[in-house]
Hints:
The complex is a heterodimer. By secondary structure, chain A is of the alpha/beta class. Chain A has helices at 18-31, 66-75, 91-112, 127-144, 157-170, 182-185, 193-205, 214-223, 269-282, 297-306, 321-330, 346-352, 380-392, 394-409, 413-428; strands at 2-6, 35-40, 53-56, 151-155, 174-178, 208-211, 231-233, 255-260, 286-291, 313-317, 333-336, 357-360, 373-375. Chain A has 15 helices and 13 strands. In chain A, strand 4 (151-155), helix 5 and strand 5 form a beta-alpha-beta unit. Chain B is an alpha/beta fold. Chain B folds into 2 domains: 3-290, Alpha-Beta Barrel (7-stranded beta/alpha barrel); 306-396. Helix content of chain B is 50%, strand content 14%. Chain B has 18 helices and 12 strands. In chain B, strands 1, 2, 3, 8 and 11 form a 5-stranded parallel β-sheet that branches. In chain B, strands 4-5-7-6-12 form a 5-stranded mixed β-sheet. In chain B, helix 9 (221-230) crosses helix 10 (255-269), helix 13 runs parallel beside helix 18 and helix 14 (325-331) runs parallel beside helix 18 (372-396). Chain B is globular, with a radius of gyration of 21 Å. The mean pLDDT of chain B is 94.
Amino acid sequence: xxxxxxxxxxxxxxxxxxxxxxxxxxxxxxxxxxxxxxxxxxxxxxxxxxxxxxxxxxxxxxxxxxxxxxxxxxxxxxxxxxxxxxxxxxxxxxxxxxxxxxxxxxxxxxxxxxxxxxxxxxxxxxxxxxxxxxxxxxxxxxxxxxxxxxxxxxxxxxxxxxxxxxxxxxxxxxxxxxxxxxxxxxxxxxxxxxxxxxxxxxxxxxxxxxxxxxxxxxxxxxxxxxxxxxxxxxxxxxxxxxxxxxxxxxxxxxxxxxxxxxxxxxxxxxxxxxxxxxxxxxxxxxxxxxxxxxxxxxxxxxxxxxxxxxxxxxxxxxxxxxxxxxxxxxxxxxxxxxxxxxxxxxxxxxxxxxxxxxxxxxxxxxxxxxxxxxxxxxxxxxxxxxxxxxxxxxxxxxxxxxxxxxxxxxxxxxxxxxxxxxxxxxxxxx
Amino acid sequence: xxxxxxxxxxxxxxxxxxxxxxxxxxxxxxxxxxxxxxxxxxxxxxxxxxxxxxxxxxxxxxxxxxxxxxxxxxxxxxxxxxxxxxxxxxxxxxxxxxxxxxxxxxxxxxxxxxxxxxxxxxxxxxxxxxxxxxxxxxxxxxxxxxxxxxxxxxxxxxxxxxxxxxxxxxxxxxxxxxxxxxxxxxxxxxxxxxxxxxxxxxxxxxxxxxxxxxxxxxxxxxxxxxxxxxxxxxxxxxxxxxxxxxxxxxxxxxxxxxxxxxxxxxxxxxxxxxxxxxxxxxxxxxxxxxxxxxxxxxxxxxxxxxxxxxxxxxxxxxxxxxxxxxxxxxxxxxxxxxxxxxxxxxxxxxxxxxxxxxxxxxxxxxxxxxxxxxxxxxxxxxxxxxxxxxxxxxxxx
Lengths: 430, 397
């Protein structure tokens, strides 16, 4: 079995967790005897190709054979190039940006056919345009490799249009993989409708929809109105191979309780602060750390100051690779109080470092982690209870650390991808 | 009677903190950005302190002692001079030797101790008094508090410490119809005389001098004399940061030429004499006592203490810091006292100010941090480490 897979990023150059998940998936599929052709907008050449063949979309021109040219344009006509996201800027700057953009597109249009497009593969201001172009190139790639794959697998909304184009061009079945939805990125009334439209289009066009958790599956069914029969949950796994746990000399004697992630509404940072204040009323030998940055950060800092606990509640700002490992190594308890989390890989990372974790029921990870402490994100008392217990009762912490470590080491992509293979088979043999 | 002109300059440099991360807490207890402190001090010494001291010395000599000024030099500034630019100390000493320069007393670390703790306040005042005496050979007689912070009770406390003269702001909401151009007395201790800053005439030099939108631009000594003539009362108190000269107002806008001309023009007129704060307090009677129940200062539009304690970040940091006072007294450890002093500098709290929209420009100018939040995080990380050291020392004891 062979799969044409559309992704947006792939290690080592990654901005989010999607690339890491994709690497785990292609390796797991290879283990299960499934070959993959992995398409990404901008490959750097230093990706690990031992388990997959990477196709760099930036190397492929939108160059269609003449008899299918009109068909091609017809099939990808839903792609609107130029609906760009423009960041919030002043009116003068805005008109400047718009004008510049218009000129650039006019020029681009006249030369784009038969040309290669250099994708940034990032998440910049011209993301929508890149998404649309990726679809056109994706269609071309599907045609070029028509005989080399049995089905198409597209990861997250950025690649759905490419997946649809590939399906239109080749007639092969399409599986889309929902790692997150618009509803996880902002509150219900503020979702980006353009992204929502693309997501829905992808889900409708797909033969199967894979979701990373039942939580996400419910969103796909309820908020996007997708037929439950074609939505399948395959929980994420995590690949710890080649990972050595580091040891760091701890500067503070107190227990350290850590939150690590974007400081945004979805991650529930304020519930963590409230819980911290409650714990500090009972015991003083504990420090809380909020690592990361985000649009709620300043508000959280004020919140902490108002509660008068800023000598015990620390902010680190955004942490990079090695610093993240260091932070885990310094922690005694990890907490992920997310309001909405499709999966949430960070508690798995923490548990792998032997750090007991407290996670919200509103996260996908809660569906599979037996040995994480689970609370509702809004239940600050329960959260405080769990923190207190883990820092005050060493026997509990030791137990949680050991069983948690074993548990996450058994969450392997080989198992998750075996389920994925079954999904593939169900659409190929239909 | 000749009208009195009282010039006083504030000299202060905070001991700035380095980027201190959570990971450093409990591991590294050096808190200061020595590089920035040295670089900034050396730059300002070249641009302001040295040339301006020389200018003042020349003016005093030229006027045969008729030109007089006063300085308040914070303890942290003196420490930095000694470490990075001892020639500045020498030039202040030369000024001291003319007998025309008065050195005022303040809190050693330019702190907010007067608001927080009478004991810590006294400790810092005495420490500053001693360093001034040792460095310049003169005993300070008049007092100015950090950023001219003043209230009835602070004034009474200052009187208890033996001072007869104190400087503060002629804040509009306190003065009402009264003029700042007279000497007043403290509402509790009538023996303490108050000199009030004439903020209009002071800010003409300190803030507006190079402002081309300002109607009086370009300001000349002659024009300024007209403003002085228009002022009522016995005395005009011109209080400003010393860094005004050459640093806030760059040399090329003509600030040095203006200051060179000013004493000549003012003395040539015949209707004025320069006095130091203590001379003014001695020669002039208090016309009334002044009620200041809530603390005032010379900062921002509000002229209160909200520049340092206006938001929850500042308040929490301040409360945490001063909660240590008692422990510090019990320990009486020189190293801890020193760090405690540096952490008290009002500047750290100023950096956390969120009043961006009205006085943000002034705040930004003196702020090494991009946002008040960064300032707060960094400060709290340092303070957390300091608290651990204090608690460990207590536990040992």
